[in-house]
Design a protein that fits this description.
Elements lengths: L6 E9 L2 E10 L5 H9 L8
Antiparallel strand pairs: 1-2
């Protein structure tokens, strides 16, 4: 989603060398954020948005 410009920047929290959470996600203002959330929930290991 970064490559397509949907997400412009993000922050990942790590714990024990493994990603644990996307803390801050900035999306293009012309994109419906509910669509961004839906795509994020389909990523492996994502449990909550």
């Amino acid at each position: 989603m970064v490559g397509s410009g949907t997400i412009t920047k993000f922050t990942v929290e790590e714990g024990g060398g493994q990603p644990e959470a996307l803390v801050l996600v900035s999306a293009d203002s012309s994109i419906d954020t509910s669509k961004v959330s839906l795509k994020l929930t389909k990523l492996s290991g994502i449990k909550n948005i």
